[in-house]
């Protein structure tokens, strides 16, 4: 195959790139490690941000408008880039409409805009519905991260033969920035270990219930530990942390790695998720996890809880902080479970998909 593809990676230039940004960057990392040719063009709206590993980045196709205005034009079928590419791959539902005269693939990570409607603003929910309807009506291949989501896509009208399941890697976490991490914890007044929450602060991450559970845990535990909440602010009401909990906002990836390394456990209990990257990031860092039992990443290990059961979350916090043998067992199981998750493997699966598109 002549790998002359146009890849939509616009999520990388958004203010909050989230898990999609991690996935895109990981696949680019894997392609870089494979040492493939440089005939892939990366499409984004206007930005001054750096994208992708510079060692392989061939062409950056950049629109003249920022992402808000550009997406509106794309929604009307305007501003579609022109070029001699053999396929188009969108790493999100955004970007140009799927009317381009070439083989296409699009990533659909979840259907939360249907299953958890209250966690989306009305306009965003309507936009996702319109874009997903276009995907269903097209002949595009559909990439998703987990078999659970693949089944939901089939139920929603996507033919099973159009779906490719490509799980993420976990070898993207950088070395810990120990100096910056120590300073942050010192500024917070945290000398020992703590529970950690990682993810965008928005309604579907279930933070109000997690904080209520933490209050219950703190009120009943013999020696409660602090709770450190890490992640960018998304949409939704302001969250006021209770005593013992600290919201630190966005930090560098090196500080995230440093905070994980010093955490007693990760608490990741979203209402629902297309995968749940923080779970495998924590397990790969030898950190045990309290996780929502209904998300795909829960199969890799951790204490599973029902995300709307505050008492269950509180009990899991108490159990994971007080039971040393349990934490050790969860760490061992988690390390074994995530061992094969590699971005090179994910990149190879994308290459095979693109070969099928252009065969």
Figure out the total of helices.
12
Provide the CATH top-level class of the largest domain: Alpha Beta
Rg measurement, Å: 21 Å
Order of helices and strands: EHEEHEEHHEHEHEHEEHEHEEHHH
Q: What percent of residues are in strands?
A: 5-15%
How is the topology of this model organized?
Elements: E1 5-8, H1 18-34, E2 41-44, E3 59-62, H2 67-75, E4 87-90, E5 104-107, H3 112-115, H4 122-137, E6 141-144, H5 147-155, E7 163-165, H6 178-188, E8 195-198, H7 207-220, E9 227-230, E10 245-249, H8 253-262, E11 265-268, H9 277-284, E12 289-292, E13 303-305, H10 310-322, H11 324-337, H12 343-357
Parallel strand pairs: 1-2, 1-4, 2-3, 4-5, 5-6, 6-7, 8-9, 8-11, 9-10, 11-12, 12-13
Helix pairs in contact: 1-12, 6-8, 7-10
Q: Can you walk through the features of this model?
A:
- The protein has 359 residues and is an alpha/beta fold.
- It has helices at 18-34, 67-75, 112-115, 122-137, 147-155, 178-188, 207-220, 253-262, 277-284, 310-322, 324-337, 343-357; strands at residues 5-8, 41-44, 59-62, 87-90, 104-107, 141-144, 163-165, 195-198, 227-230, 245-249, 265-268, 289-292, 303-305.
- Helix 1 packs across helix 12 and helix 6 crosses helix 8.
- It is globular, with a radius of gyration of 21 Å.
